[in-house]
Write a structure and sequence with these properties.
The chain is an all-alpha fold. The protein has seven helices and no strands.
């Protein structure tokens, strides 16, 4: 694997570990103590200096009360992994808020497609992005 890509993956996984640690209300010292490692080892993981082994990833997921894939999905550039990560972000939102996010993603994707192909944005351009109220109304009609 190319060095730059591996570095990006390491940093993204490290950021996910840090985010889950904070969400769990733990300090780096707490995690280090529970895993029987030094504070610097946790710091290196979170900064993306090193990638965790699979057994260590399992321990971290157990400690943070999350699935192992939650610590990895954000680092993947595979469409199916990115879709799973998006699904996880949407899971605890109301139907109206999910519809709002879906509309925003649609508008953004349409804009980026048109930009990449030199065409004018479709009806989903930023000026045509539905308001929060319109999105909530649309979601209720779902």
């Amino acid at each position: 694997m190319e060095t730059q890509r591996l570095k990006k993956i390491s940093q993204t996984v490290g950021a996910a570990i840090a985010s889950h640690r904070v969400r769990a209300g733990l300090t780096q010292e707490d995690v280090a103590e529970r895993l029987g490692v030094g504070n610097e080892a946790i710091s290196r993981l979170e900064r993306g200096i090193v990638l965790p082994s699979i057994p260590r990833l399992s321990e971290l997921a157990e400690l943070f009360d999350c699935r192992m894939d939650e610590l990895l999905l954000t680092a993947s550039d595979r469409k199916s992994d990115q879709a799973a990560a998006m699904e996880a972000h949407l899971s605890d939102l109301s139907p109206e808020d999910r519809a709002f996010i879906v509309n925003q993603a649609h508008a953004t994707a349409s804009y980026l497609r048109s930009k990449d192909h030199g065409a004018q944005p479709s009806t989903s351009s930023s000026s045509n992005i539905p308001s929060t109220e319109q999105t909530k109304k649309n979601a209720k009609e779902f």
